């Protein structure tokens, strides 16, 4: 899929950026990170990842973050922003962060100078020329068309815009494409209610080429009446008309701005009904500045869960931006009254919990759910409960990739079983564990189990019969899911029978090992080998070889031991920027995420330490193209956070971390049951010389979550030179 060029101006220069930080941190920035003057929200630069790397189309697509610069609320329902896809249309009300194909982008709004006399049609012909003045957590400000200022902020379920027209202008028009989104839609309807308000609904268009089939309902209002208003449908333009519908339709409002140049616009949305959209708007609306301040404070509340001593360098900006990315999704889906539209198309009520959507589970099971469970176990538990509800409403199986109330079926494997097991292992336990295990087992044992029209485990019959599917990458995903189910059954329900059965099933990876090629390889149903390159989704056989994180010692022994494994890993990491078909490491894609820590299983942890630092320094930056790949709804953001803390959640269903060198001198993590303080990290020293846990020497590259969850201290001593004997006293776990 091609990446279309946008026209954002990357306004926030290093000078401006550090001037803001210096102002906030004028007192005590070198002190402990509990400094109350630190405003974490303005350390966030929402433009990071908005663009792709220069080069050919495929490369730019693969190395684009697909993040957005506009305003959103932590785990909120709305994202008020220019869209990555066709940004000339204006400011949309919903946009996933880091999803790498066209989607959503409903209700684009664009302020224009003067009156309009012809239809905006599909809104593709405008050229706003966004000159971004400020883009932080929860707030966005830009100049359009040279001298029209737009400021955006949000609540949980509403978007608010302040539009300021130039002094010389007498009239200003605002257009809203109620029948337009980032893709192609079929069904939309809008009605102008008063000279300052409108309401209606629109469908979701498509996602990655498949129908989305959701409906978004909306109620929009301005703070003052328009002089003129009307609608359009395709090329047909009708002043004073109050109704419109279908694709490429919308409403316009023209205001007298001769005396007052400022307009305030508010929009509430719901996926249930217009009435709920109105209630959401009325319950959450307020003055623009008040909403802005409240949202910034809410972001500060979330971001300060991890505090670092360094708040002036570019690494601080990157760290808090990636933490911010990890806290955007999943997205709130239940309305202020608790109602939400279920996977069965019926209205349901979220009783004593928030219902969420936007589940990119093939991506987020690897990093993000662990971070959320550590920092916000109640929210992570609600996310799990939302999955359980979705499964029951959609046919009995877990989904893989959910947009609104639709299972898209994107990606592969059974990632939701791993996600739930990871949530539980890292402290999010307030959900129905019996129900969760029942749904896991149904999807893993009953061919034909579906979520809506999508199979939970495609090719399950082959997997049950042969121990493998026709695609090696799917088989490896299933083995990780099986291992996660085994761990969840034991931890949550003390079920030894299920644990033993699925722990054994997890060893099916061995059936992919070809002793003649020394690689994991796809097989035909008769057992014969397929071509080496076949059967690997978004990666190559060299990426997926290391995707046995629960039994790396077994994999390494099968290959021939540590020396052979180190040589293979060294060759794999000669470059860090592979696309889907290149056979070196891909920093920007999920199947490779855990690979840098594999050296910890080869008695060469110094190589992990140097490599993780190299990836952070070479593949990430503060620029608008500063991500190595799609952020994928916080998966990459969470990877960056863990990598810089020196702790990585390596094994599915196991609460624990593989250790590398932290970047910052002091990191304080506010856990539900205590404070974890990590000290003596270093930007210049990549290697670990020694480590103490709560004052006692610690000589292992693995640490259990149970040893950290109540707080404590991890004190590193670091070195410029590789310390090859540290970390090998107690080997990290492998489950054979």
From TrEMBL:
InterPro entries: 6-hairpin_glycosidase_sf (IPR008928), GH-type_carb-bd (IPR014718), GH92_a_mannosidase_put (IPR005887), GH92_N (IPR041371), Glyco_hydro_92 (IPR012939), PNGase (IPR050883). Residues 43-270 form the Glycosyl hydrolase family 92 N-terminal domain. It is an enzyme of class 3 (hydrolase). Residues 271-298 form a coiled coil. Its EC number is 3.2.1.-. Its cofactor is Ca(2+). It holds the Pfam family Glyco_hydro_92N. GO terms for molecular function: hydrolase activity, acting on glycosyl bonds. Residues 276-719 form the Glycosyl hydrolase family domain. Keywords: Calcium, Coiled coil, Glycosidase, Hydrolase. Monomer. This is GH92 family glycosyl hydrolase.
């Amino acid at each position: 899929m091609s990446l279309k060029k946008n026209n954002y101006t990357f306004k926030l220069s290093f000078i401006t950026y550090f001037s803001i930080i210096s102002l906030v941190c004028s007192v005590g920035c070198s002190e402990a990170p509990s400094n109350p003057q630190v405003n974490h929200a303005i350390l966030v630069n929402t433009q990071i990842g908005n663009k792709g790397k220069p080069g050919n189309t495929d490369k730019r697509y693969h190395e684009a973050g697909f993040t957005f610069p506009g305003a959103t609320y932590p785990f909120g329902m709305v994202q008020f922003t220019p869209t990555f896809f066709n940004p000339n249309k204006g400011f949309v009300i919903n946009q996933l962060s880091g999803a790498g194909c066209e989607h959503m982008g409903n209700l684009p709004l664009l302020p224009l100078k003067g009156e309009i006399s012809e239809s905006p049609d599909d809104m593709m012909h405008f050229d706003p020329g966004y000159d971004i003045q400020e883009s932080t957590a929860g707030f966005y400000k830009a100049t359009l068309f040279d001298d029209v200022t737009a400021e955006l902020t949000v609540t949980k379920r509403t978007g608010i815009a302040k539009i300021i027209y130039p002094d010389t202008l007498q009239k200003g028009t605002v257009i809203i494409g109620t029948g337009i989104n980032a893709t192609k839609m079929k069904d939309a309807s809008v009605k102008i209610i008063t000279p300052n308000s409108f309401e209606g609904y629109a469908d979701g268009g498509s996602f990655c080429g498949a129908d989305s089939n959701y409906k978004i309902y909306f109620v929009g209002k301005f703070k003052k009446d328009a002089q003129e208003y009307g609608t359009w449908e395709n090329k047909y333009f009708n002043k004073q008309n109050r109704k419109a519908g279908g694709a490429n339709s919308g409403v316009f409002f023209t205001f007298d701005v001769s005396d007052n140049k400022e307009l305030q616009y508010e929009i509430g949305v719901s996926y249930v009904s217009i009435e709920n959209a109105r209630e959401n708007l009325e319950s959450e609306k307020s003055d623009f500045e008040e909403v802005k301040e409240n949202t910034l404070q809410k972001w500060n509340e979330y971001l300060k869960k991890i505090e670092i001593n360094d708040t002036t360098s570019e690494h601080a900006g990157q760290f808090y931006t990636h933490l911010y990315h990890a806290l955007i999704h999943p997205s709130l889906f239940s309305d202020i009254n608790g109602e939400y539209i279920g996977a069965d198309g019926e209205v349901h009520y979220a009783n004593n919990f928030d219902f969420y959507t936007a589940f990119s589970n093939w991506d987020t099971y690897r990093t993000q759910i662990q971070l959320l469970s550590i920092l916000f176990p109640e929210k992570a538990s609600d996310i799990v409960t939302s999955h359980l509800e979705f499964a029951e409403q959609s046919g009995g199986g877990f989904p893989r990739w959910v947009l609104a109330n639709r299972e898209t079926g994107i990606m592969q494997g059974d990632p939701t079983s791993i996600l739930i097991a990871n949530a539980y292992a890292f402290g999010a336990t307030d959900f129905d564990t019996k129900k969760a295990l029942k749904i896991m087992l149904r999807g893993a044992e009953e061919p034909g189990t579906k979520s809506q029209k999508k199979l939970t485990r495609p090719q399950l019959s082959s997997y049950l019969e042969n121990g493998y599917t026709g695609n090696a990458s799917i088989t490896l995903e299933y083995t990780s899911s099986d291992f996660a189910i085994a761990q969840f059954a034991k931890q949550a329900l003390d079920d030894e029978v299920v644990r033993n059965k699925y722990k054994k099933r997890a060893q099916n990876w061995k059936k992919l090992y070809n002793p003649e090629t020394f690689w994991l390889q796809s097989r035909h149903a008769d057992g014969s080998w397929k071509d080496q390159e076949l059967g690997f989704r978004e990666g190559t056989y060299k990426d997926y070889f290391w995707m046995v994180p629960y039994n790396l010692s077994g994999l390494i022994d099968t290959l021939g031991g540590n020396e052979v494994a180190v040589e293979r890993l060294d060759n794999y990491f000669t470059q860090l920027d592979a696309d889907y078909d290149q056979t070196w490491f891909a920093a920007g894609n999920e199947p490779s995420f855990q690979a840098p820590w594999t050296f910890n299983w080869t008695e060469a942890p110094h190589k992990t330490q140097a490599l993780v630092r190299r990836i952070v320094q070479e593949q990430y930056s503060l620029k608008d193209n500063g991500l190595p790949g799609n952020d994928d709804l916080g998966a990459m953001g969470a990877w960056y956070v863990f990598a810089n803390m020196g702790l990585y959640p390596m094994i599915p269903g196991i609460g624990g971390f593989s250790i590398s060198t932290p970047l910052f001198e002091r990191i304080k993590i506010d856990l539900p049951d205590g404070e974890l303080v990590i000290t003596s990290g270093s930007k210049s020293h990549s290697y670990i010389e020694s480590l103490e846990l709560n004052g006692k020497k610690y000589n292992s590259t693995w640490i259990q979550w149970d040893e950290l969850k109540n707080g404590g201290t991890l004190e590193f001593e670091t070195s410029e030179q590789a310390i090859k004997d540290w970390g090998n006293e107690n080997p990290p776990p492998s489950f054979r």
